[in-house]
Amino acid sequence: MVRWGMVIDLKKCVACHTCTVSCKLENFLPPKIYWNRVRDYERGIYPNVLRIFLPMPCMHCEDPPCRDVCPTNATIKRDDGIVYVDYERCIGCRACELACPYDSRFYFDSLNYYYNVKTPYEDFQDREPHQRYKAGIMTKCTFCMHRIDEGLRRGLKPGVDPDATPACVISCIANARYFGDLDDPNSTVSRLIRDKKAFRLREDLGTSPNVYYIPP
Amino acid sequence: MYEKQHAWETLVSLDMYLGGTGAGAFFISYIMYYIDVLRDIFVYGLIIGPLLTLLGLMILFIEVGNPSNAPKIMSNIRSSWISRGGIIQPLFVLIGILYGLLLDRYISTTIIMSRLLLNLLGISAFILSILICLYHGLVLNQSKSIPLWASSITPIIYFITSISSGMGIVLMMFGIYSLINIVTLIPTRTILLISYSGMIIVFSLIVSVISLVNSSLNEEYRISIAEMKNVLLISIIFLFVVLTLFYTLSLSPNIFLTMFSYVFNGIIMMFTGYIIRASILRNAYKVSYLI
């Protein structure tokens, strides 16, 4: 059984926000919606201060709190661990936005475009079956499941072949992101988690995320 | 560092308030109908309660982004409280209104079967009203990322304010009924009990919430309650003024003033209930520093 996961090396991240932009390009996201963000803040008291760049996609939790609160079963966890929203079922109640500890959910209150009219690029989203947005739905990072599914269909290996890997991973300039199968003990991600003592965010909440971080 | 939630605002607070108040009004009216001598007045409460819940549901319907998917709301009863509410609230509205309407006509019927059915309707609506009083707090309680909501005080406060706002409706009904019909109704012992105990309940609730500021579990929790503090302090002063005013007015020989004091008392109880609920809904903080 595959379980897709990601490892992000905080030592390597330089906060260039390329992952944020490539995510927006890949998924045709409208203004003010960022499925992937890089948080930038300081921890500690002078002189022991640490500046942290924290890239945050959806954590694709094993036990997602967003799925538990969803009244319409629009939030679905696939067998391979990917959590996504079925836009046809979503009622737009925003309960999942409040339940998510990682702020990984983004509400489309209206369909905005960067310029008041649709540009040819934005028009392209209508031809892409995987992102049929409409007003009043909740959206989130899908681990680029359209790329993974398409890649698997063509016999590629997600995490190794760029065409089958999430856009944020292949666009990273510092090679700080790794993608692969967490259930396979020999995959890159599994080795990194073992060797570099990777941790996860807010483990106290019991969500068990599938995105790991290598400490800075 | 800490982020306030902006997903649920005024419309949702109104929906939650009306839903809870309607259920609370039904709850109190049902009990009063069986124990109070002025029973006929409380039949109105049995209809007004479900109507308020219906109004709340309609506000929710406007508020959600995609109302066309509303029929699918019941598909996750296994884990989602909103989904469970999507069943119990419409059911309560239907059964409650039916019971309130039939009660007036058929209570004196001698046919045992129909009386049995009527009582069955009443008891099921009563149980549903208790569930709805609990429901809104449990919806908030399911958001584990917001410590104020995830703590067990939120469902308790939501339950108590549902009941106290329901008491407010009953008092208002009592006052308005006698003002409209120009009858001097001598307040029975239970009405007096409601009018004083309601105030005391709300008062002690606010005091206990404020006292939580210093005995906090963690930082976000403390910030949420500290934000609520000012609003709650103002409502305490308000309550003091009203309680004094109510006591003076209710002793007056003028029937208009006496009944007006009951209406006023009811309004204030509903208002404080709304303030407490809305401040819990609005002052919810999330952590944004994750490591």
Describe it for me?
The complex is a heterodimer of chains A (216) and B (291). Chain A is an alpha+beta fold. Chain A is 21% helix and 20% strand. Chain A has helices spanning 18-27, 65-69, 95-99, 120-123, 145-153, 167-171, 188-195; strands at residues 4-9, 37-43, 50-56, 75-77, 83-85, 105-108, 137-140, 177-181, 211-214. Helices cover 77% and strands 2% of the residues of chain B. The longest helix of chain B has 32 residues, at 219-250. The A-B interface holds A 39, 41, 43, 52, 54, 56, 65, 67-74, 88-95, 97-103, 107-109, 134-138, 199, 201-202, 205, 213 and B 3, 5, 7-8, 64-67, 69-70, 72-76, 79-83, 86, 139, 142-146, 149, 284, 286-291.
Short description:
The complex is a heterodimer of chains A (216) and B (291). Chain A is an alpha+beta fold. Chain A has helices spanning 18-27, 65-69, 95-99, 120-123, 145-153, 167-171, 188-195, and strands at 4-9, 37-43, 50-56, 75-77, 83-85, 105-108, 137-140, 177-181, 211-214.
Enumerate how many helices of chain B there are, as a single number.
Answer: 9
Overall average residue pLDDT of chain A? 90
Q: What is the strand content of chain B? A: under 5%
Which bin fits the share of residues in helices of chain B? Answer: over 70%
| Widest sheet: strand ordering of chain B | 1-2
Weakly predicted, low-confidence segments of chain B: none
User: How many helices of chain A does DSSP assign?
Assistant: 7
Largest sheet of chain A, in brief, is: 3 strands, mixed
Rough outline of chain B = flat
Main structural class of chain A: alpha+beta
Shape of chain A: globular
- Radius of gyration over C-alpha positions of chain A, nearest whole angstrom: 17 Å
Order of helices and strands of chain B: EHHHHHHHHHE
Say how many strands of chain A there are: 9
Radius of gyration of chain B: 20 Å
Mean pLDDT of chain B: 84
The largest sheet of chain B, given as strand count, sense and whether it forms a barrel, is: 2 strands, antiparallel
Low-confidence stretches of chain A: none
